[in-house]
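Q: Can I see a sequence and its folded structure?
A: Here is a first one.
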Amino acid sequence: MVDLSNFPYPAYEPNKIVAGILAAIIGISLFLWIIQSIQSHFRPRRVIILLLISHLTLFIELILRATLSLDTRNTRAAFTVTTILLAVGQRMIILANYDFLTQTGTLGSRVSRTITIGSGLAIVSSAILIATAGILSYNTDTIDTSFQLRQASAAIVLIMTIIFYPIWFLIKTVKHMTKQAIFVLFISSITSLIVTIYLMIISCPYYYVSTNQQEFWFYIFHFTPMAIALIIWTILHPKRTLILTTQQQKDIKPVINDNL
């Protein structure tokens, strides 16, 4: 029998020093991301905005982790805020991965719209499910339903991270990407997959309670993959990784016109 007496709150006391140091690291990445985005005139716009939101949400969550006591964090308002911040931050990276696929200029507008709208609808659906699960988690009579909705939400996001690879292969944009663009997208998608597998696992009551006993699990399987993805995006900002791709687009257009 799983002890859900403290559900949905974590049982550990957050390590404020560690959280503060990690907040500083993400803050530096955020600052560099903003500077480079300004230099690139916020292009490609959607990718820039999505990853800006992801940076901000993770940074704010770490600040709260570093400043709030356990008693304060384990209130309905504070827990809801921190849960939303983490959920939004992770989902923005996944959306950025999908949107980056459409930035080579070799896709038709219909395919690009399908990828953008399809990934957006999936993320919104998962967000609605996890929000509903959060609301139901505070009532002992609806905890089972809450876990079922958590599992459904996690499954949607997990499927998104898995089918990303066959979609990437089928649309054949990889041959029009720079090596740096391929690298950043590969790392970002792999780290997203790690987080979603972890979230799928902890959507089961036993593992949810077990992982909420130690902060270690959060840092290893949730924070670290997200941080790696954001830092890699900052190091290989789209203003650099898409430069050669843009030139390739100019070379491709005459060929397309000749074929027509």
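Q: Show me another, different protein.
A: A second, unrelated one:
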Amino acid sequence: MKYFTFFKRIVTFEKYPLFRTVNFRQLLMNIFIISLLVSLPNIISLFQTVQAASGIGDIESEVPDFEIVDGEYTGETGILSAGGRKVLFTGEIAAGDTEEIDDDIFLGFLKDGIYIKDVQNSDFGYSLIGQVKNDEDLKTFIDQQTSSLYFYVMVYSVLYILLIMFFAVILMSAGNYPLHFAAERMRKKSRFMNWFKISSFITVLMLIPIVLIALFTGSGPWWLYFLSLPFYYHYYRKLPVMKT
């Protein structure tokens, strides 16, 4: 396919001027892939969290006794293994102190709110699940919502990817315009859209190893994107010089 030919041209430093022939459909595909790659760690983490929450129903007898009083957790502290993931119950850690939570905890019922690894923040208070007042309510709530949880995750994932696509366009535009401007100042026949097109292919190539490393190690080495500089420099060199 011609689409994959452009990736070959990047890594082999061949026919760079022909990136001007990239059509809108191919460009849109790149933006979608970029957004999907950026979103993937959080989406996978959310699926794992939902799996852990769903697994609580299988170990109902092990859920600590607790109550939600005036929006705060009161009761026993404990860690459960549910759905292959760990769930924390504690009234000793506030939602704003999530740095105290171990990295293997995917879901936490904290003093003043619910923690979801890599997704939620301290604004997720117990008021959002007002029907849950104690451990028995939690078991009932999970039993009722399990069938819908994965649907909610799918909707969230789609909206999240669309949001990332929006910001990807803005950030890539902001990053490529200075390159286009600098090339023009150096008397090169530069076109902003061509910079944007080749940047989309370069970004896809760079994100693949970055995201794979993030999935396996838990941290994304975003500095690896600096390895793309030779590709941008080579494209700059291929730009024709303006006639005086």
